[in-house]
Recover the amino acids of this structure.
């Protein structure tokens, strides 16, 4: 549960960063268009219109980059006000220069992008129609600063409308596709989390099936052993007391015979009960895999379920291991495989064992994401993957006198633990 929350938080952080960078790129693009339009205006209109009108229009060009960041903020009221202000500035420029679409269309593109990507479709369409309508109205015959301004032709108006409609439609389509992809990605992530939970449940069930049955059998053996001890102890005590009674009798053979007969019957009954208890102890139990076979079964099942390629090298691993060591190694492998699948998104895992001077070392390496800011060279371990449950295993390994390391390496993630073959539980 905690791993899922941390993974969800991480995905949310990544999405937030992507949105920030997207807005930054859009703002920079809008500013570049406004700067280029201003340069184009300086080149085309300096000396061709009155200096006063030229200076005022140039001042308006300076205001447009200031409104650009506001149009791409994640706040609807701010966007609407910024768009309204930008449209007013564009209208002022259109009234001053007339139907120069080499300037008007590039300057209107940031506004169209902002409303189509940031606002709901209905709001976006309203601003598109409002922007086109006001610009087309400004291209009617009129005077600016006392001088007549050329009006646009019908053909120019239709061309302008078609171009702005195409640009708006493209960005609306882009937004809709982006929303659809986001929804699909969210669905895939939900399915992935559900799939990971199924894998975890499968592995937990395997652990329970392999070890819980053995522990239950051991408890039952202890119970039967205690019961057998009680039967034999009680029976022998009674038989001894009867024999002692016969030994100290007054020589009455019939009385002595009756006491011994009673002792014999009591011994027969006790022997029958003891045989029944021993028969229960002799019942052959279903054996579970041990050692290498146990680890092979775990990795084979995991590979079949997840599709991750798992290579395992037992090298000189002892054929028999203490139960506590075997169980801890099983948990280490299970945790390493689960983390390679869930957090590392690995496609391949390599597991190796090495036994040297009474110590058994296990290395679990995957080719997934190391989850660190920098990738270390081979053999150099850094911080553990965030959100994974290795702390408990580290504690268990160190309590038994072993060493534990886990961290990112070149091209993946490495988990390594060294355990004494004879565990020290102290």
């Amino acid at each position: 549960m905690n791993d899922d929350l941390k993974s969800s938080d991480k995905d949310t952080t990544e999405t937030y960063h992507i949105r920030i960078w997207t807005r930054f790129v859009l703002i920079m693009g809008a500013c570049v268009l406004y700067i280029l339009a201003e340069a184009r205006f300086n080149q085309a209109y300096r000396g061709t219109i009155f200096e006063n009108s030229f200076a005022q229009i140039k001042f308006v060009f300076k205001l447009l980059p200031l409104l650009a960041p506001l149009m791409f903020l994640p706040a609807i009221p701010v966007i609407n006000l910024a768009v309204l202000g930008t449209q007013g500035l564009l209208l002022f420029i259109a009234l001053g220069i007339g139907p120069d679409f080499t300037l008007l269309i590039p300057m209107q593109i940031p506004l169209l992008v902002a409303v189509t990507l940031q606002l709901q479709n209905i709001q976006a369409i309203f601003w598109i129609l409002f922007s086109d309508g006001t610009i087309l109205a400004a291209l009617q015959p009129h005077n600016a600063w006392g001088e007549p301004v050329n009006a646009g032709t019908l053909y120019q108006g239709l061309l302008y409308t078609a171009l702005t409609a195409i640009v708006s439609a493209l960005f609306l389509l882009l937004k809709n596709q982006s929303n659809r992809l986001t929804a699909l990605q969210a669905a895939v992530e939900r399915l992935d989390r559900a799939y990971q939970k199924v894998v975890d449940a499968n592995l937990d069930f395997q652990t329970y099936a392999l070890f819980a049955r053995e522990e239950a059998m051991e408890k039952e053996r202890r119970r039967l052993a205690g019961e057998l001890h009680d039967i034999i102890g009680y029976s022998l005590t009674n038989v001894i007391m009867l024999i002692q009674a016969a030994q100290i009798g007054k020589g009455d053979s019939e009385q002595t015979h009756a006491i011994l007969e009673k002792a014999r019957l009591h011994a027969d009954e006790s022997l029958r009960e003891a045989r029944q208890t021993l028969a229960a102890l002799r019942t052959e139990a279903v054996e579970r895999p041990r050692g290498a076979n146990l680890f092979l079964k775990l990795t084979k099942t995991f590979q079949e379920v997840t599709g991750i390629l798992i290579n395992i090298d037992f090298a000189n691993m002892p054929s028999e291991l203490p139960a506590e060591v075997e169980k801890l190694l099983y948990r280490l492998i299970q945790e390493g495989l689960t983390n390679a699948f869930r957090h590392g998104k690995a496609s391949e895992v390599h597991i190796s064992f090495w036994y040297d001077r009474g110590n058994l070392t296990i290395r679990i390496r995957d080719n997934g994401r190391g989850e660190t800011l920098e990738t270390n060279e081979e053999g150099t371990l850094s911080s553990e993957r965030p959100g994974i449950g290795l702390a408990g295993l580290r504690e268990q390994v160190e309590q038994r006198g072993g060493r534990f390391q886990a961290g990112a390496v070149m091209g993946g993630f490495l988990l390594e633990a060294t355990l004494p073959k004879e565990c020290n539980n102290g």
Summary: The chain has a mean pLDDT of 79. The first helix runs from residue 2 to 45.
